[in-house]
Amino acid sequence: MIDPEEFLRHHPIQNPQPSTEPVAEHEIEAADHNDAAALLDTAAADHETAASVNDADTPVVSVTFTGSFGTSGHGFSSTWGKKQTRRRTSARTQRGRIRQVRTELASDKNACLDSAVKSLDAAGSNEWGMRRRLSRKGFNAEAVDWTIAILQRDNLLDERAFAESLVRRGVAHGYGPAWVSRNLTAKGVPQDVRDCAIAHALEEGDFERAAHSFMQTLIRTTRGMDYDKKMRKLSSSARSHGHSLSALQPWMNEFLTDDSQ
Predict the structure, then answer these.
(1) Helix 159-172 and helix 206-221: axis angle, to 10°?
(2) Considering the domain boundaries, does residue 116 fall inside one?
(3) DSSP 3-state of 102
(4) pLDDT tens digits, 122-150
(5) Which end of the chain, C or N, has fewer beta carbons within 10 A?
(6) Domain tally for the chain?
(7) Residues 174 and 153 in one domain
């Protein structure tokens, strides 16, 4: 029987010494690339073997490798996992859009009237707003004129009620008679209807309540300011909101008295 220790003494094993010569970087990259290619070949062979043992009716889905290895053999480039984004239209933009009618319906009076009746709430109950909306929809002038005449005959357009609603809205937001008058003019309200609505609001004291609300907001937002800055703020805000300084006089002492100082 051979003694292992005796055998190793007479036949020593020569361990290979590691090479001290530098290895070129491209050789390392080539080796990494070859290893990756070998792995892909092995995976393809396994896939073919698995497909061969499946039934003939079983569909086999082949996946093509579309990635690429970088210079170091580890950078895999793929579009998998990228988040797909889609531009969305804001709600305000969607509300501001008016759907256009088809070209063949531009001169259809019945279609124009039907659209006007459906748009009474959106366009308002005045002639100017309805004409503007129907024109933006694409109806021609003849169809719009005919529709406006029908709406006026049936009392569906009420300039006075429309003007009063605009006055109430302006007063609720603290605007004065000058601003409300400009707004009514911009909305196409006739001058006589506009003057009547503003005069009625003055008699009811609506603009006095609007001035009080305006001054309370201004007092709260200017607390801590110096005198000159307060007066500039008062002048610019009163002008933009349609209030005269004489209408704001009852609250002037409270405005100039700063409790924070």
Answers:
(1) 30
(2) yes
(3) coil
(4) 556 788 888 988 999 999 999 999 999 99
(5) N
(6) 2
(7) no
